[in-house]
Amino acid sequence: MQTVLVLSGPNLSRLGSREPDVYGGATLADIAAQCAAVGRELGLKVDFRQTDDEAELVGWVHEAVDGRLPIVLNPAAFTHYSYALRDALAMRTAPLIEVHLSNPATREAFRHNSVVAGVATGTVAGFGALSYQLALRAVAALCLPTPGSPTPGSPTQGPQAPAGAERS
Ligand code: DQA
Prior knowledge:
Elements: E1 2-8, H1 20-23, H2 28-42, E2 44-50, H3 54-67, E3 71-74, H4 83-89, E4 96-100, E5 122-125, H5 130-143
Parallel strand pairs: 1-2, 1-3, 3-4, 4-5
Helix pairs in contact: 2-5, 3-4
The chain binds 1,3,4-trihydroxy-5-OXO-cyclohexanecarboxylic acid.
1,3,4-trihydroxy-5-OXO-cyclohexanecarboxylic acid is lined by residues 11, 74, 76-77, 79, 100-102, 104, 111.
């Protein structure tokens, strides 16, 4: 089964009591349980982790790079200034979906820039806890074979896609 790392950065362990008007009432444990359930539905093994420590987060990204694992990442405040995290993510070997509970574009000016976005496959922001679930669906769409579609290179493969149509 395809493993996906679902990583959350600093202060996200405080969800539930942290600014609920901004981040909602769900705890990180609630979000972990939702991700596990969506993972079971999609056929993804969800490895859910949180840290307040930039070095630990960078180490987990290295693990994903080496294991060719997709990442769903809420970098929290690191989003806005951690070039160390961005440099680690730039080495990615599988899709990276950046997620945010809130929509940083509607908030303080310092949240408008993401140093992660430029190396991500895409970003899901503003849907509360649902952002994580939508990101997992994106990973499934990008990483899991579509039921009924031929395996590339198999004798039953259909017409070739036009040149340049490959998905990275
Ligand atoms: C956040 C948005 C960030 O700006 C903030 O620093 C966070 C949470 C979000 O999920 O909305 O800690 O990443």
